[in-house]
Amino acid sequence: MRVLVVHENGDLCGIWARFLKRSGFSVKVATSPADAEYQLASADFDVLVVEPELEGHGGLSVADMATFRNPEIRILAVTASSFFSEGTIFDLIPNARGVLRTPVRLEDLGAYIDHFSSWPQREAPARPTRRKA
């Protein structure tokens, strides 16, 4: 399972990434929307862990790009904001599969991603081949 962790706190990203790597996941980190967009353009990911209010609402644009690049990506929002307490995140990020409130327990983060790995990933449809005339 390939995971991209996006949070403006680089130290926190590092802690989460090390924990997830020890749990067997392949992890990349980004600390800004621009860095996240570069990572998304450079590699494929199964899970995006993102702070929706990254640099304003930059986390939402990162989630949009991730969904555009991979319509099957599972997105976990991690936030301290009470704005998302009523389930608003699921309206703003259609691929959101969960919300964690900070501070995050590492075991909870790992459990979400481990749960996501048990979900089947749909295969991309086969590309049509051209017939020779």
Automatic annotation (TrEMBL):
GO terms for biological process: phosphorelay signal transduction system. Pfam families: Response_reg. It comes from Halovulum dunhuangense. The lineage of its organism: Bacteria, Pseudomonadati, Pseudomonadota, Alphaproteobacteria, Rhodobacterales. This is Response regulator. CDD domains: REC. SUPFAM superfamilies: CheY-like (SSF52172). Residues 2-117 form the Response regulatory domain. InterPro entries: CheY-like_superfamily, Sig_transdc_resp-reg_receiver.
